[in-house]
Design brief:
The structure holds three protein chains of three kinds. By secondary structure, chain A is mainly alpha-helical. Chain A has two domains: 3-35 and 61-278 and 394-427, no CATH class; 294-357. Chain A is built from 14 helices and four strands. A two-stranded antiparallel ribbon of chain A has the order 1-2. A two-stranded antiparallel sheet of chain A has the order 3-4. Chain A starts with a helix and ends with a helix. Chain B is an all-alpha fold. Chain B has helices at residues 3-25, 59-83, 85-113. Chain C is built from 22 helices and 15 strands. Chain C has helices spanning 2-12, 34-43, 108-120, 163-172, 178-182, 228-232, 241-245, 252-267, 273-301, 305-326, 348-371, 374-380, 388-393, 398-402, 410-413, 434-458, 476-481, 483-494, 535-541, 543-547, 552-561, 566-570, and strands at 19-21, 24-28, 51-59, 71-79, 84-92, 99-100, 124-125, 188-192, 204-210, 213-220, 335-336, 339-340, 502-510, 513-521, 529-533. In chain C, the strands form five sheets. Chain C has a five-stranded mixed beta sheet with strand order 1-2-5-4-3. In chain C, 54% of the residues are buried. The chains are: A mainly alpha, B mainly alpha, C alpha+beta. Chains A and B meet through helix 1, helix 3, helix 5, helix 9 and helix 14 of A and helix 1, helix 2 and helix 3 of B.
Chain lengths: 428, 119, 571
């Protein structure tokens, strides 16, 4: 292995491990601001560091620090302390491990070497995901059971019954998808979606599997224990369910595990059904071939976007008081100047690229970065759908949830397999 | 297995283990204050509870688990079929239709038996 | 109307002489005949007193000039179809022997008799589960007896296990736990509350669960009991007004109105027209607030937090408006015996209209999320059904009763404050499930807004306080310069409003149902006895009937849907 190999392996792993983590902060922020947006209120906007509030992001920092320095209680009535401590870790680890197989850009070709852009370049893909996500429920059951608390036990049982019930429709909706793609390797699935259907429709999963995508997304909501399937927590019924006895950072691990799981399942939905990292109508080869016009477009586009973004910041962060050296105006000025200096730096980099480095490996790295951007934006939007649904729908009751899973989704998934199979067989 | 896979796998799993472990270890930063109430299970503030949490659960939960086992194993059979559907052709498809119908019959039987009727 | 009830009673019981006190007809019955009379009152189709409103007792230990026995139990009954109100009074010779129970006739008597036993120590023979209800199980003595010292507090050191009670309930339902041990499972006994996010206030809902299904349920209340009735016996009539604020704190002003209305009707005071309209406007506005809070909390129990904010944002803005109108947000104590504390500020009509429009917008926004929502429908339709017979038996009133299809509303059936001249409808449900209860409240919001708009158009100018020296403080001019004024002021403040000796019951349609006050006056400025008839108490007494056989999640939203307010429940 060359030094380049090791560097790329480390970069990939770092991406796979730390992007979901940093997205936790973004998602918590999005959840809070999103909730406030849907509910006609302001959301967190007070926490600041020297007047910088970053639109409420500092609140997350404050919460994190608070949770670290809170008393960590392991109640005395708990007999299996090891399991009690292991449970939140398990939830977090499984959520993170799922991201290992998700491709975030097309295969990077550097010289004669090809690098698959997954944290761990496995070709088992979706099978790894199914295996690990099924393991995640152990964390919840273990938490509920080792808490030695009736609410916890009920929450754990609810979560277990729910996750196993929805794993079947999820798995079956994947069966028909795999029949379409003919592979379980997520990289290959992502590449498949770079094609065009009939020459003009991007061959994304949701076009090929309109019923499957609905079943999969609903099942994914259930698997991540998000509203309307958040019965395992059901704060108004069984208080907090499985994590009722947890405090401090152990509680935070459940909390973060939930958001990592939400990020990962969004990423998987995007990978399977919404074209993964593909930019519509612009396949990897097209982008590499036309790197120069793309860069010029970017150089024109960046200042325009920055201009509107700066205008938006100024509009939403305007001060309501007339005073000298208002912290809000100062904050706005800092944001806007930071934004413009970022634009300048990017423009300089792009200019250097245009003059000195165009062509060859640099083009491929540029396309790689663009595709990572595309992947993250899509995933972010999918996460927004999660937030959107959470603040729109109330919660199911336990037996209704089971009935929907077994009576509606399972037959629908089987029907979907039948239709898909019939079409594939009759066309091939 | 290539060296690339082993290395990235080891590093990734190592990171995935290390991050939560470090987070759990931050417990040492917190203050410590004992107390009787903190060592009792929470049940809406009632300390004189009837029955403990480690009792036997309702059998209804087990029924679901058994149901899951049956259907999940059957779903596992479908993955290789799905990936190689194009090679298997019409015969493979008809075989799977028969299999799905068998599955459905079982499902309908279970639903009619009222396994999911909780109320 | 009351003539006919007297005639009917005379026809049935020739030796009983009915008296008329305000709206109510009062009969005195000997303890030996109590069961016969009560049974006939309930079952005789011409009388049909299907609603047992309240049971209370009076301790005549220190009552001036009282002859005869120390205790007397008073049953308040109502025939909702013909609006007959009847009070049956029975002397109790020996509290240890007490009276026969009527809990076999009315479900409401179960808790009502427990309360009488708890507060007065009067036993009821044959009662299935006669134990304390408002005071804790380690309490000694009976606080509403006149010889109980008001300053004697008692602390509860450990909660009641309630195991015996829930096992009795299981046995009563015919659930045999040996069948469960056959398949090697056990029933889970789970406490929901007192310290639980969904018990609005502090109520203990103790359930026996098979999986998630509630097999049996026993409830414990009294966590917010603060001795309202005992405190009231030591205050002048006007001093009690701030205490009534704390009954149903979601619609505090309605309690004020109900209380002063009861005192005024005994004094025979006709308040000024402006004060009446002010009370209508405030009462209906607070009814809207109460329903907003109830619906918001109910939907948040269901997991729909966005609904909560759509409704609660408007409630918050309304409270700001109320603080401008009355001087306080929550507990305004705005009424006085004989009128209102003061007139509204200049230009309140425009602000009120703006607030009403905001409420309509918020409610419509929330309705958009609820009306077509399949999850809400599945959760609420056909769950926790309350049949009309059960509702009447357990003494449900207000929106909870109307959701079962019984159109009983005091504003229509026994109008006060010109309610008969307003154009409004009484929304009723058809099945008595949670959905009906939610929708009846949504509709009542719109009806109340209709009433407010009419009242704002019709409100006359004029004084807000009646010109009656028995209740009205003299103007400051007279207090400072005339000895009569000073004396009058002094007497009204120190001795309170003097009411003629007697006993009476008066009721008011509060947001939650019939809020009644039973007074005993000895002629002084302090009530000898004051008993509230809180609608919540009786709603909660039938709660177990609604949730048994349903699931935990249903029990939680059902608790929200019958709108239990701790302050009123526990007093």
């Amino acid at each position: 292995m060359s030094a380049l190999d090791i560097l790329i392996i480390l970069l990939r792993v770092a991406f796979g491990a730390f992007v979901p983590l940093s997205f936790v902060a973004v998602l918590v922020w999005m959840e809070r601001r999103g909730a406030a947006f849907f509910q006609d209120r302001a959301g967190p906007n007070r926490c600041n560091v020297y007047g910088i509030r970053a639109g409420g992001l500092i609140q997350n920092l404050a919460d994190g620090i608070k949770l670290i320095f809170k008393e960590d209680i392991v109640p005395g009535h708990i007999q299996h302390k090891l399991y009690f401590i292991l449970a939140p870790m398990l939830v977090f680890i499984t959520a993170l491990l799922c991201f290992a197989v998700i491709p975030f850009a097309d295969v990077l070709v550097l010289g004669d070497r090809e690098y698959v852009m997954q944290a761990v370049p496995m070709d088992v893909g979706i099978l790894w995901f199914l295996a690990v996500v099924g393991f995640g429920v152990y964390g919840i059951i273990l938490a509920g059971w080792s808490s030695h608390n009736k609410y916890g036990v009920l929450g754990g049982l609810r979560a277990a019954a729910q996750v196993i019930s929805y794993e079947i429709p999820m798995g079956l909706s994947l069966v028909s998808l795999l029949a379409v793609y003919g592979t379980v390797d997520l990289s290959a699935i992502a590449q498949y979606q770079g094609q065009l259907l009939f020459g003009f429709i991007p061959a994304w999963g949701f076009v090929l599997q309109p019923l499957g995508v609905i079943i999969f997304i609903v099942a994914a909501f259930a698997e991540t224990n998000r509203t309307p399937f958040d019965l395992a927590e059901g704060e108004s019924e069984i208080v907090a369910g499985y994590h009722v006895e947890y405090s401090s950072m152990k509680f935070a691990l459940f909390f973060m595990g939930e958001y990592v799981a939400m990020f990962v399942s969004s990423a998987l939905i995007v990978t399977l059904y919404f074209g993964s990292y593909q930019i519509p109508w612009l396949s990897t080869e097209t982008l590499v071939a036309h790197a120069r016009p793309v860069v010029i477009l970017l150089m024109i586009g960046l200042p325009v976007i920055a201009y509107f973004f700066a205008g938006w910041i100024k509009k939403n962060n305007r001060t309501h008081y007339y005073r000298a050296d208002d912290p809000r105006s100062r904050e706005t000025a800092i944001y806007v100047s930071l934004l413009w200096s970022l634009v300048v730096v990017l423009e300089v980099i792009l200019l250097i690229y245009l003059i000195f480095a165009a062509g060859g490996a640099a083009d491929r790295i540029l396309v790689l970065l663009l595709q990572i951007g595309s992947f993250l934006i899509k995933t972010f939007l999918m996460c927004f759908v999660y937030v959107w649904v959470r603040w729109t729908l109330p919660r199911f009751r336990y037996d209704q949830l089971q009935k929907i899973g077994w009576e509606k989704m399972l037959p629908l998934a089987l029907l979907n397999i039948f239709i898909t199979g019939a079409i594939i067989v009759s066309f091939s | 297995m290539s060296a690339e896979l082993v290395l990235s796998g080891a590093v990734f799993i190592g990171l995935a283990l290390a991050i939560p472990t470090i987070m759990v270890l931050t417990a040492v930063f917190g203050p410590r204050s004992g107390g009787e109430a903190k060592n009792a299970p929470y049940e809406s503030g009632i300390t004189q509870v009837v029955g403990m949490a480690d009792q036997k659960f309702s059998v209804k939960f087990y029924l679901l688990a058994i149901l899951f086992l049956i259907f999940d194993i059957e779903a596992v059979f479908m993955y290789p079929w799905a990936v190689s559907l194009r090679e298997l052709g019409v015969f493979g498809f008809i075989e799977m239709v028969v299999f799905i119908l068998l599955l459905l019959t079982g499902l309908i039987y279970i639903l009619k038996k009222g396994v999911l009727n909780w109320r | 109307m009351t003539d006919t009830v007297s005639e009917k009673l005379r026809a049935l019981f020739p030796d009983i002489e009915p008296q008329k006190v305000l709206d109510a007809t009062v009969i005195d019955v000997e303890p030996e005949r109590l069961m016969v009379v009560m049974e006939r009152l309930k079952t005789y189709p011409d009388l049909d007193f299907s609603l047992l409103l309240d049971i209370t007792a009076v301790d005549y230990l220190t009552y001036p000039g009282q002859q005869g026995g120390r205790f007397r139990v008073v049953y308040t009954l109502r025939n909702w179809k013909r609006n007959w109100l009847l009070q049956v009074r029975t002397p109790v010779a020996d509290p240890e022997l007490g009276l026969p129970t009527v809990s076999g006739l009315w479900g409401a008597a179960d808790w009502a008799e427990r309360e009488v036993y708890d507060q007065y120590g009067i036993r009821f023979q044959g009662h299935p589960d006669l134990r304390r209800i408002l005071n804790h199980w380690q309490f000694e003595g009976h606080p509403l007896r006149k010889d109980y010292d008001i300053y004697k507090g008692q602390v509860c050191y450990e909660p009641d296990r309630l195991e015996k009670e829930i096992r009795a309930r299981l046995a009563a339902k015919g659930i045999d736990q040996s069948t469960m041990s056959d398949i090697n499972t056990e029933m889970m006994f789970l406490n929901l509350g007192p310290s639980h996010p969904a018990t609005h206030g502090a109520i203990r809902i103790f359930t026996a669960l098979d999986g998630e299904t509630i097999m049996a349920n026993v409830n414990e209340i009294g966590y917010l009991h603060r001795g309202f009735e005992k405190t009231a016996e030591n205050r002048t009539y006007n001093q009690i007004i701030p205490l009534t604020d704390r009954l149903n704190y979601c619609s505090a002003l309605m309690n004020n109105i109900a209380y002063v209305k009861a005192v005024e009707s005994w004094l025979g005071i006709e308040i000024t027209d402006r004060a009446m309209f002010m009370r209508v406007i405030l009462g209906e506005f607070f009814r809207v607030q109460d329903h907003l809070v109830c619906l918001a909390a109910n939907l948040v129990d269901m997991g729909g937090l966005t609904n909560y904010w759509y409704l609660y944002n408007e409630k918050e803005a309304s409270y700001d408006f109320i603080s401008r109108l009355t001087g306080a947000r929550l507990t305004s104590s705005f009424t006085r015996i004989g009128g209102m504390y003061r007139d509204f500020y200049e230009g309140w009509e425009a602000d009120l209209e703006r607030q009403l429009q905001a409420i309509e917008k918020g409610v419509n926004d929330s309705l958009k999320l609820v009306l077509q929502n399949r999850i809400v429908h599945d959760r609420t339709q056909g769950t926790c059904v309350l049949s009309p017979e059960k509702a009447l038996s357990y003494g449900y009133t207000g929106p909870n009763l109307r959701s079962t299809g019984i159109a009983f509303d005091l504003r229509k059936d026994n109008p006060y404050y010109h309610y008969d001249s307003f154009d409004f409808d009484i929304p009723i449900g058809s099945r008595g499930d949670i959905y009906d209860r939610i929708m009846v409240r949504f509709e009542e919001i719109f009806e109340s807004i209709k009433i407010i708009r009419q009242a704002v158009k019709r409100i006359p100018a004029g004084p807000v306080f009646v010109d009656d020296h028995r209740v009205a403080l003299p103007p400051k001019e007279q207090v400072y310069h005339k000895i009569e004024g000073l004396a009058n002021h002094f007497k009204l403040i120190f001795e309170g409003v003097k009411t003629p000796a007697g006993e009476w019951y008066d009721s008011y349609e509060a947001a939650n149902g019939e809020l009644g006050f039973h007074f005993v006056s000895d002629g002084s400025g302090t009530p000898y006895k004051l008993k509230v008839r809180p609608p919540c108490f009786y709603a909660m007494s039938g709660f177990h009937e609604m949730i048994e056989g349903e699931m935990i999640a249903d029990a939680i939203i059902n608790l929200g849907s019958i709108n239990i307010i701790g302050g009123e429940l526990d007093r």
